[in-house]
Amino acid sequence: MDLDAVRTFVAAADAGRFQDAADELAITQQAVSKRIATLERNLGVRLFTRTARATRLTIDGQAFLPHARDLLRAEERAAASVRPGRRALRVDVIGRRLAPAALLGEFHRARPEVELDVVTLFDADAAIAAVRSGTIDASFRAVTMPGRRLPDDIGAARVLDEPIQLLTGPAHRLAGARAVTPAELAGHRIWMPGIVPGTEWAAFYDDLAAAFGLTIEITGPDFGTEPLLDTIADSRSLATFVGAGTRLAWPADHGLRRVAVRDPAPVYPHSLTWHRDNPHPALAALRDHLGSRPLDHSGGEVWTPAWAQR
Question: Which branch of life, at top level (predicted)?
Answer without folding.
Answer: Bacteria
